[in-house]
Amino acid sequence: MPERDATREPDVLELRIHGVSNTPPAAMLGLRAEQVVQVDGDDLGSFWVARPGVDDPHGPPHGVRREAYSWGAMARLSTVPGLGKVSGTIAGVIRALWVLIIPFGFANVAYWSRDLEEPTGRRSSASGGVVRLFGLLLTLLVVTTTATVTLGVVAAQCYTPRATLPGTSVEYVMRCTALPSALDSWARWATGVRTAAYAAVAAGALIVLGVIGSTGLVRYEPRESTTKARGLGARGSARQQRWPVLARPQFWNRAMRSGELWLLHLAASLGALTAMLAWHFLYRDRDGCQVATGFGAKGCFGGTFDAAGRGWSLLVIGGVAVVVAVAVRVTALRLDPMRPPPPERDEAERRARVAEARSSERRSARWRLLAVLLSALALALFVACDIAVANTPDGALEGSAGRADVPFVGLDPVPRAIVTLLLLLCVVGAGARARVRAWLWAPIVVLAPVAVGVAVLWPDAGAARWLRWAAAALAAVLVVVVLVASVRRRGVAHREGWAGRGPFVFLAIAAGFAMLLSAATVVGVVAWLQGPGAPENAAVPPGVASALATVDANDRLRTPVTVEVPHAAVLVTPHGYSQFAVASVAGLAVFVLVVLTLGARMLAGSRTPIPVVPPAPRHDVAGAGALLPGLVAGLVAELGPDETRAVQRGRHRAAFAQRAEGIVGVLSWILLAALVLAIVLPDPTATYGGFAGHAWAFGVQWSTAAVTASVGLLITSVVLAGSKKSLARPWGLLWDLMCFLPRAAHPFAPPCYTERVVPELRSRIDRWLGDDGTPSRPGRTVVLSAHSLGGVIAVAALLARWDGPRGDADPRVALLTYGTQLRAYFGRFFPELFGPAVLGTRSAPAPHVWRLDPWTRAPATANPPGYTLVDSLTGRGRTTRWRSLWRRTDFIGFPVDDYVPTPRRIDHLASEIAPDTYMLAVAAHSGYPETAQYAVQLGVMIDELRLLGRRSNRSIPGP
User: Fold this and answer.
1) What is the sign, positive or negative, of the torsion defined by CA atoms of 585, 589, 594, 600?
2) DSSP class per residue in 656-717
3) Sign of CA dihedral 76, 77, 82, 86
4) Which of 135, 743, 756, 923 could join 220 in a cystine, given CB atoms 3.0 to 4.6 angstroms apart?
5) What percent of the chain is predicted at pLDDT more than 70?
6) Terminal-residue alpha carbon distance, the chain
């Protein structure tokens, strides 16, 4: 490599991009914090260089400007709309609430794992509509859970009919004395007013979720190149019709209409609350109709209603109609970027026609959205006012005959119907990449809530029994069709995550985690409210009444309306939540057993060496066998006995972590089974007696404690993990991966930081090369040096530049990645975004879960035909301007093309021993730029770029 020359003006920009570890800029540049200076950007995204005059013996080669791009704050720091940066208690509360939006983030990941190139019309599987409908159900599950706590537990069970204790003037108006003292005064309110207030609290929870989901928004106005702004560049290229999704214009330019989804989810939630409230008050005065089980069989739908009853009926119908209308609109909404139309001679006329059509569509959609939202809001306000002025007697929210089996009748069947639909959509998601057509699954999904409702309302009716069997048969048919379709895709499914069932895995995790949060919330609140935390929450002996009255009178911070209850509060947990708690605890125990078994398997084989390159029976690349021995021998010869043992231990640890795909797949099936049990599992205490009832009660008691404690520890870890920095998102790896793609499936999902990162990175490249109109010296080139997830960002930025002045083949740019997950994870989980047909690399088989080396399977297949990123980075001499480093001791880093060297020589082994360390240290996921292999490959890229850059600038003038 040529020596450094500080006097030469740089003509190569080495732009380093960090990964999931959020490496500080100084560490990326190999310097101390005081030796670097920020040259562009702000607190969220910034570019850094070494300070002038800094003596760096490991500095860049001559003529190279080394910059570090820091983007991690966009994924991990948040501001509250209207408040900006906050700290203290508010910041801790917001960090705790971030846990609630994790299921929405998984739903958004499922949206982008579906088949993005599926056909439209009757051949479509409507997979995007499936995931968006799934996201709407997640919102309704949150609203139902909140309503269960506020209406079904607190409003219906904590405020009892007024009664005066003999010999005192104290009224028995509260059972749940653990409630905050501020709510004691609500005991004086009429039941209707109190119910309306708690319903407003349930609706307000949705607003809070929307605000939390907006705390990570990043604003950025991307700087377009002059050619792109003029509508020139590669727009006339015939290859544009084959461009991948990430190369299509406007993908990273906030083209997703998540704002419309936000309002639609709000309207559906208001409609659901309206229907549940009106349903309850429609039957509150009818004997035997305060419990939903057997509702229709008891004749609750028969008889005549007075004027008030007919009004409640219309409100129920109106609320259901709003939910159905929103579901239809959410399913039909198109959010992903369209494939660009073929180029026309008159580009201006085409663009004007497209703009006019889009404007007309937006106006029509805006009016429809406004009508649905206003209808939902009007119904919610009307039912709230009607409840507030209704002559509701004390105790009207309780079950019949003073029992509280299902204290709020409208809440009983709704959660089960929502969970049933979530399960069915998970099954449909298993066939999303198998292209199971919408006309097959849609009728089953529509029939499912009808069958659930019939099963609850008419449990013994003959017609209902036949309808339930018909629904079960159709669901079985759907499962069989999905399995058959998956088998038909066996030829390509092995190249995709979880054999092409990636959407199912992400949806199952989202549904299971959402239900886990719901169950922990309900059972935890019930356990807290009926705990003996206050002296009033216990059976009161006659002689203690006066003492309790004195305690209450002396408590000036509390409204003296609640002092005691005649009996200890025993609250009823609605059906389904305790069942899921038991099933989830049992399932997680199985999951832990599976992980421990894998760990024992790895421990038992720890003495068996893992080779550098996983063995394969045969390889279809000519010359690979000749390349491999010399490549491996050069690294192994440098290792001594102690180093060899340390490296083998590192390889075993990395191999265990690289089974993540299979382990996550097992977790998704366990969560799906828990959801099924939450629906079908009966309550033995009500059905059976003896040992079964006692065993179930014991299981409920311990599983409730386990679920509540687990979620509590989870939230506590979130709060403490981000406490060192105001509003710093914890678990950076989770947020970095979950927030990478634009939110399109759920409006409350964590915002996408890449909508700023990619345009900002592209803007820096264009500015250095002069593609944005900035005067630039000819002959400049760029090397994107990206680590881990930074490699995915770099690929997205390169694809976004395909509409620039050099089109999809710019010889002035090269790519150097290391420790990246492009092939093993992103390429398998999102084939249309980062798969072999996009990158041009060889497909990766799935890791084997039980073998010692997870990658000892069939060799990868050849890269598919078509114009890809590798083609755009390959010059006339067939030299690929892409190099990638990897090592077997890296637990999350993989080759981008293949373990076995190919003639293109993209992948290169890096040293597994950390360089320049006093003590022996095995290198894992970091330290690639410090290796000798990095310097060699960087030098090769720079020499190639300079050669091609001189040729390119002589033949193609810049803008």
Assistant:
1) positive
2) HHTTHHHHHHHHHHHHHHHHHHHHH---HHHH--HHHHHHHHHHHHHHHHHHHHHHHHHHHH
3) positive
4) 756
5) 71
6) 32
**47 has which bridge partners?**
40, 69
More confident residue, 192 or 394: 192
- For the chain, the C-alpha Rg in angstroms (whole number) is 31
Mean pLDDT of 887-911: 86
> CB burial class (10 A; 0-12, 13-18, 19+) of residue 600?
exposed
> HSE-up of 523 (CA within 13 Å, CB side)?
27
Three-state DSSP state, 197: helix
Question: Around Cβ 932, how many Cβ atoms within 10 Å?
Answer: 10
Amino acid identity for residue 75 in this structure: A
Tell me the CA distances in angstroms from 506 to 2, 58, 417, 430, 668, one per residue in order.
50, 43, 21, 10, 8
- What pLDDT score was predicted for residue 15? 96
Instruction: Give Cα separations from 535 to 97, 162, 166, 170, 568 (angstroms).
Output: 31, 19, 19, 15, 10
In terms of Cα–Cα distance, which of 359, 695, 668 is closest to 502?
668
Residue whose C-alpha is closest to residue 49's, from 71, 72, 26? 26
d(CA 636, CA 618): 23
Q: Which amino acid belongs to residue 63?
A: G
- Rounded-to-integer distance, Cα 151 and Cα 185, Å: 17
Q: Which two tokens stand for residue 890?
A: 């890296």
Per-residue pLDDT at 645: 85
Written as six digits, the tokens of 97 are: 């609430």
How far apart (Å, rounded) are the C-alpha atoms in residues 606 and 651? Answer: 10
Q: Is 24 left (phi over 0), alpha (psi -120 to 50) or beta?
A: beta
In terms of phi and psi (left: phi > 0; alpha: psi -120 to 50; beta: otherwise), the region of 254 is left
Q: What amino acid is encoded at 691 in this protein?
A: F
- Per-residue tokens: 763: 């803007």
Closest CA to 780 of 950, 936, 940: 950
- What 544-551 contacts at long range (C-beta under 8 Å, 24+ apart), as own/partner pairs, is 545/165, 545/167, 545/168, 545/170, 546/167, 546/168, 548/170, 549/168, 549/169, 549/170
Please name the amino acid found at residue 361: E
Structural tokens at position 460: 């013994």
- The tokens 């807290």 sit on which residue? 528
Q: Which pLDDT value is given to residue 607?
A: 84
Residue 226 and residue 292 in contact, taking contact as beta carbons nearer than 8 Å: no
Does the pLDDT at position 735 exceed 80? no
Main-chain dihedrals φ then ψ at residue 858, nearest 5 degrees: -60, 145
Q: Between β-strands 12-17 and 781-787, what pairing exists: parallel, antiparallel or unpaired?
A: parallel
Instruction: List, for residues 763-776, the tens digit of each pLDDT value.
Output: 899 889 888 777 77
Q: What percent of the chain has pLDDT over 90?
A: 20
Q: What is the mean pLDDT of the chain?
A: 76
Which DSSP symbol is given to 29?
T
Model confidence over 631-649: pLDDT tens digits? 454 454 455 566 788 888 8
Cβ contacts of 32 within 8 Å, gap of 6 or more: 26
Q: List Cβ neighbours of 91 (8 Å cut-off, separation of 6 or more).
A: 722, 723, 726, 727
Residue 339 CA neighbour count, 13 Å, CB half: 14
Question: What's the Cα-to-Cα distance from 149 to each of 141, 182, 568, 577, 578, rounded to whole Å?
Answer: 12, 17, 19, 12, 14
Q: Phi first, then psi: what are they for 481, rounded to 5°?
A: -65, -40
Amino acid identity of residue 437, one-letter, is R
What distance in Å separates the CA atoms of residue 410 and residue 404, rounded to the nearest whole number?
13
Q: How many CB atoms lie within 10 A of CB 655?
A: 22
3-state SS class at 569: coil
Q: Which helix (H) or strand (E) holds 593?
A: helix 577-604
d(CA 456, CA 450): 10
Q: Give the other-Cβ count within 10 Å of 450's Cβ.
A: 13
Closest to 65 (Cα-Cα) out of 942, 790, 810: 942
Residue 569's pLDDT band (boundaries 50, 70, 90)?
low
